[in-house]
Amino acid sequence: MGENLVVNGSFTEDIDPPPGWSVGASQAVLTTEAGGQIGNCLMVTEHGANNPDARQIVIVTPGKIYRFNCYVKAGTEATYRVFLFDADHETFLADTGELEETDGDWSTNVNFTIEIPSGCTQIRIYLRQICLATAETTLYFDEVSLYEVPPEFQRLPINDQINWRKNMTQKNIIISHRDFLAAAVDVNASVTKVNGTDFNSLELDVRPLCGYGVITVTFTRAAGGASEIEFYFQVSNDEGVTWSTVEYLKIGYPTNSVAVSNVVRGPKPVIVDAITHIRLWKIVNGDAVNNCTACNATLSL
After folding, report:
1. d(CA 286, CA 100)
2. For the whole model, what pTM was predicted?
3. Taking the C-alpha atoms of 198, 204, 210 and 215 in order, what is their torsion angle to the nearest 10 degrees?
4. At residue 78, does pLDDT exceed 60?
5. Which domains does the chain have, with CATH numbers?
6. Out of 8-12, 187-191, 269-273, which region has the weakest mean confidence (pLDDT)?
7. Whose CA is closest to 142, among 16, 18, 250, 256?
8. Separation CA 144–CA 99 (nearest Å)
């Protein structure tokens, strides 16, 4: 899916303020912190003005389709707003409005799919904390990305995609997360669990989408090793009548991956072009020593 156009969207280096990000007139304090969705993350702290934010300008091409993604976690403040701004015309391209992150973890995922209007060559990304001045509150963001969507990944004609999203949400935004399992499952050391026998995966409809989404696998471990736990997925292209007999996608993470409160979260982009449904097929714990509990996967679109 090409190159992530956001500079330092994963906040990999422990540098303050994080390279690539600025605060404008918002007087925010931006710092790189451990404990992110993956590795480090961005912390936005209020420092003398209402609604502090981090922002970045990205060069884009008029007429192209782009996919934006980020994760949000509450700190001492839970209310956030994420929006994309046409820096050439001073107009909004996509906006969550003011929302509250109530889970206190990295499960909140924001996605936009936008078509760049004529004459727009740069957009400004805003990651905003909604609060009053002098509150000194904090909010976290991580895994910020903007990718150009190639034509072969676009399931619907462009105008139909954009119109469908407007009709569904009144703005060019989809914030949707659907768990594959209604109840997470435990997978002990060296154990394989299979759909239909050990759990029952929901069969998630991926029509009509822009060609791809993000699947985030989650599991909890008290300890871990270098061996991986692997999540396998099947797909259907006939509305769930028949399913692939080999995996369409495999997501594997070492059981000793970076965890927050012993919970590992691992996202991976998934192409959903030319398929109608996707489901979790099996979970294989390749670690011969460590059990993994509360295993699940979430599709974000």
Report:
1. 37
2. 0.58
3. -30
4. yes
5. 29-169 (2.60.120.260), 177-300 (2.60.120)
6. 269-273
7. 18
8. 18
Q: Is the pLDDT of residue 273 over 50?
A: yes
Q: What is the mean pLDDT of the chain?
A: 86
Query: Which one, of 129, 170, 115, lies nearest residue 30 by Cα?
Result: 129
> Residue 246 has which token pair?
């080999």
Distance CA 59, CA 87 (A): 10
The rounded radius of gyration (Å) of the Cα atoms in the chain is 20
Tokens read off for 156: 């619907």
CB atoms within 10 A of CB 50: 14
Backbone angles phi, psi at 173, to 5 degrees: -150, 140
Q: Which neighbouring-strand residues pair with 217? A: 266, 297
Residue with tokens 């139909």: 160
**Whether the bond into 269 is cis, omega within 30 of 0:** no
CB atoms within 10 A of CB 223: 11
Token pair in block for residue 117:
């209007």
CA-based nearest residue to 114, from 60, 155, 72: 60
What is the C-alpha to C-alpha distance for residues 17 and 9, in angstroms, rounded to an integer? 13
Task: Give the 3-state secondary structure of the chain.
Answer: CCCCCCCCCCCCCCCCCCCCCECCCCCCEEEEECCCCCCCEEEEECCCCCCCEEEEEEECCCCCEEEEEEEEEECCCCEEEEEEEECCCCEEEEECCCEECCCCCCCEEEEEEEECCCCCCEEEEEEEECCCCCCCCEEEEEEEEEEECCHHHCCCCHHHHHHHHHHHHCCCCECCEEECCCCCEEECCCCEEEECCCECCCCEECCCCCCEEEEEEEEECCCCCCCEEEEEEEEECCCCCCCCCCCCEEEEEECCCCCECCEEEEEEEEECCCCCEEEEEEEEECCCCCCEEEEEEEEEC
CB atoms closer than 10 angstroms to residue 191:
16
Residue showing tokens 């740069």: 122
